[in-house]
User: Fold this.
Amino acid sequence: MEQINLEDLNEIENKLYEEAYNVRENAYAPYSGFKVGAALVTDTGKIFSGCNVESVDLTLTTHAEMNAIDSMIAAGEKKIKEIIIVMVSDVGYGMPCGLCRQKILEFALKDTVIIGINLKEDGSILNINKTSISEVLPFAFGPEVLQD
Assistant:
């Protein structure tokens, strides 16, 4: 994983960042207060975004990454080229949780890029980290495991 700056993002990554940043504001997080936005671009160049949606029974919570992926699938797309996750966190890398890593893997290309952006409370950027699905989920249980 490498730490990068906002200036290092390309045109598509900047668009994904804006989408994830904006959709994060729509997150429904009355119990945790932890709002997350995600935006992805498919291998065909289409962009999808999502935010987390909590339920009083927290096991029914939809994560932002899952929401974006579900929208992608509903639109008939199948492959994630790149995904950006935006959250406010003083610690960590802004990376997806284990469940979301597994779901991203299901639709990932071999070189799918993941960018995590941690914001400060005021909305300014604390840090940006860039990696790949293979780095955040080594020795993964992917679709190829079940194929002959």
Notes: The chain has a mean pLDDT of 95. Residues 2-141 form a domain with the Cytidine Deaminase; domain 2 fold (CATH 3.40.140.10). The two ends are 32 Å apart (CA to CA).
